[in-house]
Write a structure and sequence with these properties.
Length: 532
């Protein structure tokens, strides 16, 4: 059912969830439709803070858990947060009873009718593609806004009518859109968000429904994705990129109909997948009637988005790269391919959602790459890597990100890359992409300031005994300076196993790996900047 924002005047509205979209909706409702009111605010758990003040609805009824369905059924319309699955039985029951269920983005698209909107979606690459399309449209002189999952909430655009809107859309938003964008762009389809959609088939169907929505005049699809290639053959207005007859990536760079346009060295982003994202942006602009600006000059000033192949440090010839936005094996494969000419150590791990790591394991083996696995997907990826031929010394586990980084320092030499590309959704161990990026920045600062010896580094870490708080690795006689904490290293003098080194107040204490952690030797520190 297609509901426009302006049609809500006078309605009793229920909202389910909170967040940026719902906040934008509440603000626009209070400003523009005084006859409408938020009567019910539903949540899965008791909300924190003064949620009614945030919703500008002091008299709304807050309902939680089992009371949600009955309360929302009394409303004229329900606006859900994108994080609330449209496949939930409560929302299905509401729709079956005749209560419209929508989102703030859907209300705006219906209000605008999709005119002058490029809707960008896909499992991976949609944010970068949307940002590129916005950047190029501005360079072409368009009055353009960037909205949706990236940029401003769509309803905030009610305050102005730009010529063009580049709108990033997730499958969570597409699932119950009533109207589509003028140009629908899909970058790729991989297994993802099964918990929200219920099945891989439902996820793909929700993504692809954008192609048939009212208002869609052109669809732009990745011609290298088999599922999209098949879907496009059934659509009369399909435009493909990644094929020789359109915008494509070749060895030399970006080409149009086989003619070179931008050489590889002039591309603003690393990796073939990002070159393909640029092709998508260019094809979408043309489909929207916007002539691409002069290339490569128009690409000047474009910067990579955070957490996407983001170089956070380079120390002693080792490049530390944060690709923590990666939540699928396919995106980790793309990240690996971006460093085809360098030794790579992959740090991987996140929530286990049943992803298939076979292809990633094979690529790690073929590349001779190393991998450190974090909970909870780490053991499954390590098993796939070992099965494909990655040796045990190159496939290791770590309990958390900090330990993985310290271990990575011992495994990668000058010219190598330490790549954080989790291939799974963040957990409490890996945290969110934002906090993982923050952790990466902290690691990089430690890499920059810690005096690390250039020789004698160990290749094995055992986290037994006291849990390390701050740790570095080295063979006996070599370690980095720390203010306090644990540093672990294989002690040649202790053939029975690994030893722990504790650094505190200028004294190092070598401790055997035993249940009683009995000190064996204490040696004064003779230098302030490290152990010798």
């Amino acid at each position: 059912m297609c509901v426009r924002f302006s049609e809500l005047d006078g309605a009793n509205i229920g909202v389910w969830g909170a967040g940026l979209e719902i906040g934008s909706f509440a603000a626009q409702l209070a400003r523009r439709l005084p006859g409408a009111r938020i009567a019910v605010a539903a949540f899965d758990a008791p909300p924190a803070g003064d949620v009614l003040a945030a919703l500008r609805a002091p008299d709304a009824r807050v309902v939680v858990g089992g009371d949600v369905l009955a309360a929302l059924a009394a409303c004229d319309v329900v606006v859900r947060s994108p994080g609330v699955s449209s496949h939930r039985p409560e929302l299905r029951a509401l729709r079956q009873s005749g209560v419209p269920v929508t989102t703030a983005t859907a209300l705006w698209l219906s209000e605008r009718g999709g005119r002058g909107v490029i809707g960008v979606t896909g499992t991976k690459g949609k944010s970068t593609t949307a940002a590129l399309a916005y950047h190029l449209a501005r360079a072409a002189g368009c009055d353009v806004e960037l909205a949706g999952n990236i940029g401003v909430p769509a309803l905030d655009l009610l305050d102005r009518e730009p010529q063009l809107v580049v709108l990033e859309l997730s499958s969570y938003q597409i699932a119950d859109l009533g109207a589509g964008p003028q140009v629908a762009l899909v970058t790729n389809l991989h297994r993802e968000h099964i918990d929200w959609h219920g099945s891989e088939e439902a996820y793909r169907a929700d993504k692809l429904r954008i192609l048939g929505l009212p208002g869609v005049r052109a669809v732009v699809l990745n011609g290298r994705d088999e599922a999209l290639l098949a879907a496009g053959r059934e659509h009369p207005a399909a435009i493909f990129y990644g094929v020789q007859s359109g915008w494509d990536v070749e060895r030399e760079g970006i080409a149009l109909n086989g003619r070179a346009i931008v050489v590889s060295g002039e591309l603003p982003l690393r990796g073939e997948h990002n070159a393909l994202n640029l092709c998508a942006a260019l094809a979408a602009l043309e489909a929207a009637g916007v002539a691409p600006p002069p290339l490569p000059a128009a690409l000047g000033g474009f910067r990579p988005l955070p957490h996407r192949l983001e170089v956070v440090a380079e120390r002693d010839g080792v490049l530390w790269v944060n690709d923590s936005i990666s939540t699928t094996p396919e995106s980790a494969l793309a990240a690996l391919a971006s460093f085809a000419d360098r030794e790579v150590l992959l740090i991987e791990g996140g929530q286990d959602r049943g992803q298939d790591y076979t292809a990633l394991g094979r690529e790690l083996a073929a590349r001779g790459a190393s991998v450190i696995g974090l909970p909870s997907t780490g053991p499954r990826l390590l098993a796939a890597a070992r099965s494909a031929g990655v040796g045990g010394a190159r496939a290791l586990e770590a309990p958390d990100l900090a330990a993985a980084v310290e271990l990575a320092r011992t495994l990668v030499g000058a010219g190598g890359v330490v790549l954080l590309s989790p291939a799974g959704r963040a957990t409490t161990t890996t945290a969110t992409s934002r906090s993982a990026a923050s952790a990466s920045a902290r690691w990089s600062r430690r890499v920059r300031r810690t005096p690390i010896p250039s020789r004698g580094w160990a290749s094995t870490l055992a986290l037994r005994g006291p849990a390390p708080q701050r740790s570095v690795m080295g063979t006996a006689g070599f370690s980095a300076r720390l203010r306090r904490g644990w540093a672990s290293f294989p002690a040649p003098a202790a053939p029975a196993g690994l030893s722990f080194l504790r650094i505190r107040r200028g004294v190092r204490t070598r401790t055997a790996v035993r249940s009683d952690i009995r000190p064996l030797q204490t040696v004064p520190c003779s230098q302030r900047r490290g152990w010798v």
